[in-house]
């Protein structure tokens, strides 16, 4: 399984939690260990989006996939 496939699988694991709050995310790209995602739905305009991105999605991916160095919000 490639690194990109593992990242997408990890993002899919997070998706139900975001969808429960009316949001979602889209994988944009993986570049030099950085994962670029676009938050959509309620997550796209939520004032807590940065916290969700860094303390939720980034922490989970870094804990489960050591090659991931950062998660960045793409617009």
Q: What does it look like?
A:
With 75 residues, this protein is α+β, with helices and mostly antiparallel strands. Helices cover 51% and strands 28% of the residues. A three-stranded mixed beta sheet has the order 1-2-3. It is globular. The mean pLDDT is 94.
> Which stretches are low in confidence, meaning pLDDT under 50 for 5 or more residues running?
none
Q: What is the ordering of alpha helices and beta strands? A: HEEHHE
**Major beta sheet summary:** 3 strands, mixed
Q: What is the strand tally?
A: 3
Provide a quick synopsis of the model.
This protein is α+β, with helices and mostly antiparallel strands. The chain is 51% helix and 28% strand. The longest helix has 18 residues, at 3-20.
Blueprint of the fold:
Elements: H1 3-20, E1 23-31, E2 34-41, H2 42-45, H3 49-64, E3 70-73
Parallel strand pairs: 2-3
Antiparallel strand pairs: 1-2
Helix pairs in contact: 1-3
List keywords for this structure.
51% helix, 3 strands, 75 residues, alpha+beta
